[in-house]
Amino acid sequence: MRLDKCLSNLKYGTRTDVKKMIKSKRIKVNNHIVTDPSKYVEPNIDSIFVDQERVRYHQNIVYMMNKPKGYVCANKDKWHKTVFDLLKKDDQRYNLSIAGRLDIDTEGLIILTNNGALVHDIISPNKSVDKIYEVTTELPLDEPKRLLEPMLLLDGKKERYVPKRPNIIRADKNVVVISIQEGKFHQVKRMFEAIGHKVINLKRLAINQLALEETLELGTYRKLTNTEIDKLVSK
Ligand code: URA
Question: How do residues 25-55 score in pLDDT, each as one tens digit?
């Protein structure tokens, strides 16, 4: 790709800013100062420096984060910190998206990636990807099987829908582990509300075959291996 495009993709500035930076001899490619913004570079192969900073460019970034409570899954928020505030400066350069948002008071597994197709595969209702949650309710559930009965909920646009039947993986007093394949607004909380239970803690444990790594501290993240990426969508 063109050098100016590569640097503006990485948020070093607008295309015009970056062109100025190149003209003012601040960029080196393979140890040579470059003054031509249209120079073709292979960002994964060439060594590119902006002043003293080595440019990192990755085609396919997929991170697993252990989202803490108190952070919103949004690019920007007026009042709250966002999960993007938890990223290191270098990682903030990439246009990462969240594959399956969690509420501000939900914790656990989120996937951050620049791979739009992967986001689509994880969140599309047609792809039937399981999202597994540990749900703690205020009071013990005597009849968790009521979650399997048809119910009417409101989505984010206040439109009514009948959620797909969840799968109850484990139910023990006031802690239930369920999997759902959709991801509508407050869906898990509203499913429990529909059977008369208030959720006091919600944690996403896994997406499809990929479990949140237990030793990954709240608020931290790490890159997924290719095998782990496959686990996100494989059947
Ligand atoms: N369901 C909810 O109610 N909240 C979440 O954050 C995720 C699923």
Answer: 999 999 999 999 999 999 888 999 999 988 9
CA distance 163 to 42: 47
- Domain containing 148 — which CATH number? 3.30.70.1560
pLDDT per residue over 63-80, tens digit each? 999 999 999 999 999 999
On whether both 165 and 223 belong to a single domain, the answer is: no
What element of type H or E holds 169?
strand 167-172
- Find the catalytic residue in 46, 77, 91, 103: 103
- Residue with the smallest CA separation from ligand 1 atom 3 is 186
Ligand 1 atom nearest 105 alpha carbon: 6
Range(s) of the domain holding residue 155: 130-207
| Composition of the chain by helix, strand, coil, percent to 5 | 25, 30, 45
Instruction: Indicate the top mutation candidate among 189, 190, 195, 204 to test ligand 1's pocket, ranked by most ligand atoms within 8 A of CB.
Output: 189
Nearest to 129 by CA among 204, 189, 73: 204
Is 121 one of the catalytic residues?
no
Cα-based torsion angle of the residue sequence 41, 42, 46, 52 in order, rounded to the nearest 10 degrees: 60
pTM, two decimals, is 0.86
Phi, psi of 191, deg, nearest 5: -65, -40
Query: What confidence tens digit (pLDDT) does each residue in 175-214 have?
Result: 999 999 999 999 999 999 999 999 999 999 999 999 999 9
Positive or negative torsion for Cα 211, 124, 182, 166: negative
**188 phi and psi, to 5 degrees?**
-65, -45
